Structure formats: structure tokens, C-alpha cells
Amino acid sequence: MNILVTSAGRRVKVIEYFKDELSKINGRVITTDCDENAPAIYFADGYEIVPRIDDPDYINIILDICEKYEIKALLSLIDPELELLANNKPIFDERGIELILSHATYIDISFDKYETYEYFSNKDIQSVPTYRDLAQVRSKLQESELSYPLVVKPAKGSASLGLFIVENENELLEAYHKFEGQIIQPFYKDKEFGIDVYIDMLSGELVDMFIKEKIRMRAGETDKSISIHNEKIETLIKKMIQETEFVGPIDVDCFEYEGKYYISEINPRFGGGYPHAYELGCNFMEYIVENLKGNKNKPYEGFKYKDNYVMMKYDHIKLIKE
Amino acid sequence: MNILVTSAGRRVKVIEYFKDELSKINGRVITTDCDENAPAIYFADGYEIVPRIDDPDYINIILDICEKYEIKALLSLIDPELELLANNKPIFDERGIELILSHATYIDISFDKYETYEYFSNKDIQSVPTYRDLAQVRSKLQESELSYPLVVKPAKGSASLGLFIVENENELLEAYHKFEGQIIQPFYKDKEFGIDVYIDMLSGELVDMFIKEKIRMRAGETDKSISIHNEKIETLIKKMIQETEFVGPIDVDCFEYEGKYYISEINPRFGGGYPHAYELGCNFMEYIVENLKGNKNKPYEGFKYKDNYVMMKYDHIKLIKE
């Protein structure tokens, strides 16, 4: 069984974990990237340099690679490619290639923070209140249902691009009009958590979750986290999985504010902090392989990792001759 | 012979290289950091958690650590500590502990971009023209000796904090008045280079240099570089070393603009990209050990590394129980 990981980039660990898991069954992991200087491709059993995902030939080239390497299933590690793959699912289905990916509906919901909030609040899943209507925010400010500071950011943004923390009406207006499609949220971030979740691709049931608190650093580094057991977050995630149809590996961001927990974002792919989960025994690669073999994984039975383990990231290097 | 590396942070590779080199002579590398989540400390032969460098007891605590571990020499990996160490040199001298560090005069010059420029232009070393007087910039703009875009940034800044690329008078004024001590430079960055240089601590002569071009990436990642041989840069660095008294390992930033080369900055310590140099044979740890043994290193004889090798950084992880 061979798996293709597209847009592998710098995600060396994810590739190594797949390689380890697949080697147990004589399978291989193959990678692609548009950049020959993407370190992760060199850690796979094979790699191909491909055009950028906006190239009209991109999907055909990926299909050719799938044929060449007898690929059983594929997944991508970057957001912009998820929608593209999901929209082309029929073409992959036709050729018997599985996408390790949620349905396009859920990818669309997860990429728009306003839609995420709307969907979740309809299902009574606690998530960070999100507004796109300035008049509504003003009236809530007047009625003291909202207060400064507020967060203004793009509905479809990533990282902190276009994000402003505003302290008054003037700043709010400036930030809101800076870009189109800005949303407004209360600043709900006493603590920040990342939760790695695996949902069975056959049964749709929760299989495993790993909760880590992100440790905020002086210099703005966010690459340290600590494993924790938190039953309130566990309950929130369980409810979310019941009320949605995400499948495979997903990454959930969650804030703690005044003792309550709010989902802030879903990334329907392996999160950047996943190595923390894996190193403490949450082996999603094993669950993927089981699913691809046609077997359901055992449903979730509670935290199976040790808490209070800190993960620190540091730079490793790889040299290649150009 | 034991060496202490302070503020080790995430610089795991530098610690590993010292450990390798010192193990050949039964020496040890010891590390400190104020943060127990600094991954590099765990790769040394021993480590101590210390207060922040602004703690009034900091130097005394470092001296105690030097005594405890029979430290022969020490170096720091972060800028703010260099000045502190250099200013306390007599105290270290008294105890027979060597600082692997340039003289305080040169550290001061290198931390102020205006002073760097002034010093270099007096010595006829080509560096990026730097102004702090707005009237002077305006008159040069009028006489077409300068043109937009211009770079406005703090004289004593690091990374891109407070840096603005300005396209017109309004933007120039706003950026210049945003912070105190802003300097103004032409935008001279067709290509960007980092040069790792070792200057003998005994003879003051150039021992080795490694030139890498920084590869600019789509997503703003600067963690890829390619080794190159460039005789113009080599000549510029040789002249700079002759005209200054930096010693030990330093890191020089240099821009190419319209075929000419300009020094933009000196970091009088191991640069973040040093692993590229080491992995291609420029072993500064060996030079340091030779110097500490009382031996001069062989003077520079030209490029001894292979060109066209790309270094890519990627994340490795370290888990610790809290």
C-alpha cells in the first residue's frame, strides 16, 4: 500500500511517521512539492517536483504520479490544496484513489470563520462569537454584550495576516475597512489549545484525540506546547465530532476564556503540532492504514497519552547539491 | 577544556558541534538559558537554568557556573548579551576565563547601523548608505542621488521590527517619526548574502569564510541558503577584516545591488545560518579550540568549501517531562 503526501514542504516528521508505518506492510510514502528545496520530500521513499497547485494541469499531473507509484490514497499538508482535492474527488474515485480528507462541504465551512461560527452555534457547539456586521457589533458594544479589546481579521485568513486587536471605535473602523470580508470577535484568549483529532474514515466515529496547550513565549515563538488532560475540552470535541462529518486527521484550535472553552478554528488536515501527539503515542498513521485496509478503528476510549510533556521544536538541517 | 555557551536557546546544532569537537580532547560543552524549554541546553554535556540577562545577579551566577564546571572560555548566542559580557571582560579576565568575543568597541559599532556605516565609510569599506538626518535625505532625493523605495528602520533594531519600505514622502515621514532613532537607507537588495567569518583570536588574521546566498521564498521563509564562491564578496570581507578588529566567529550580512556589493550588518557572534558552513567543512569550533590551546590558526587561503550546496532547515522536536 503506497500513500502520496502532496505539498510536503517542511513537514519532515509527518513523512517519517508515514514511512515507518508503511514499511511494516511493505508500503511506501511518496511526496510532491512545487519546490525542490522543500526538505520533507527527501525523507520519503520517492518524490516528484510538480507545478504549483494553481497550474491548470496540476490535478492531471498528480493523477499520473498516482498511477506511476500505484498510490492507494493521498493527502495534502496545506490548506489551499484541500478544497482543490475535495472538488476533484470524483476523478480520484473513478481511478480508485482515496482522498484522506473530509467532504468539500466541511472544508468550505472550516475555511470561513464566520461560517464555522454560524454552523457551530446552530448545533450548540461553543465557539468564539463571530460577527461580520459592524452595526450588530456596535449595538452589542452599547448593550455591553461585547467590550474592547476586539479582534478584527479576515474570515478566510491564515496565521496572523490582516489580524488586528482593536481597543476603541476608531481602531475598529480602520481595521474593519482595511480589507474586505473582515470579521469581528471578542478577544477570548486566556489560554490557547491545539487538539489533534482522528475520526474514523469508515465509521465516522471519534478514534483518538490529543490536547496540548500552546505555550506563549516572550519572543512570540509558538513552537512549544505541553500535553494536558482536560475533560471540558474533551467533551467539547466529542460533541463537535457528533454534530459534524469531518473524517481523518483534523486539527482544532480552542481558546480558554474565563474558565470556558471555545473552538476558534478547524484545520481539516494534520496540524503543525501533530508530532507532539505522535511522540506520545497517538499514531494517526496506523489509523489511516487500518482504514485503507478496510478496517474500522476502535472508537475513542479516553486520553491514552501522558500529560505534562513539553514538546520543543528546533532546527534540523538537510543539505542537497543543486 | 570546557566551554560555556550562554543563552543557548534553540541553537541545537552549534551545541552539538562544540560537543563533538570538545569530546576529541576530553572537554565538555556546558549551556545556560533562562528558559527550561530551550531545546539546545539538553544537547550539551551539562546545563544550568539562569535568570534573565537583565537580572543584577546574572554575571555573578555565570561566574559561579564557570567555577563549578571549570570553564576555560565562554560565548553567547544572543545579541543583547554580547555587550553585557564585553563590558564585564575585566571580571572574567581576573578569573582566567576567556570571552570568545570581539572588543566592546566593535560590538557597539555593530549594534548601531548608523555607526556601522559611518565607521565603514571612513575606512572606505563599501556598506549600505545610511542616513539619520531627514533633511539630508530630502536634499539627496531632490538631487536624484537617492530614490524611492527607501528603507526606514531602527538604528539598533533586529529582524524586521520597526522596518518599513516607503514609496513616497508621506510614507517616509510616517515611518521616520514612528519610532525614535530611525535610520534611512536605499533599498539595495537584489540579492542577500550571509557570510560566516572566523578571525583568529591570537593573530587577529582572517582564518576562514563561508559565503551563502539567502534564497528568498514565496511565504517569506528565509531558512534556505546556497553556498557560493564570489570573489568580490571575498575581497570586501578581507578588506573589512583588515580595517577592523573583530575576533572569533562573526556573521556578516551583505546585499548585491546592480552588480555591486554592500555590507549591511555585522553580528559579532555565530549567525543563525552557521550550520550550513559547518556541514560543508568550515569548522569554527576547531579554530576556537586551537586558539584556546594558545595556537594560532593557519591564515585564510581561499574558499575551501564546495559551492552550489543548498541548506534547508526543518523542524526537529524534543520532548521533556515538566
Describe the structure in brief.
The structure is a homodimer of 322-residue chains. The first copy, chain A, has 322 residues and is α/β, with parallel strands linked by helices. The first copy, chain A, contains 11 helices and 14 strands.
Q: What does the model show?
A:
Two copies of one chain form a homodimer. With 322 residues, chain A is α/β, with parallel strands linked by helices. In chain A, 32% of the residues lie in helices and 27% in strands. Chain A has helices spanning 12-23, 58-68, 79-87, 89-94, 104-111, 113-122, 134-142, 169-178, 231-243, 274-279, 284-292, and strands at residues 2-6, 29-33, 46-49, 71-76, 98-99, 150-154, 164-166, 182-186, 191-199, 206-214, 224-227, 248-257, 260-267, 309-321. The first copy, chain A, has a six-stranded antiparallel beta sheet. In chain A, strands 3-2-1-4-5 form a five-stranded parallel beta sheet. In chain A, strands 7-6-8 form a three-stranded antiparallel beta sheet, covered by helices on one side. In chain A, a hairpin with a 6-residue loop joins strand 9 (191-199) and strand 10 (206-214). In chain A, helix 3 runs antiparallel to helix 5. Chain A is globular, with a radius of gyration of 20 Å. The A-B interface holds A 10, 12-13, 35, 37-40, 215, 217, 223-224, 226, 275-276, 279-280, 306, 308-322 and B 10, 12-13, 35, 37-40, 215, 217, 223-224, 226, 275-276, 279-280, 306, 308-322. Strand 14 of chain A pairs antiparallel with strand 14 of chain B.
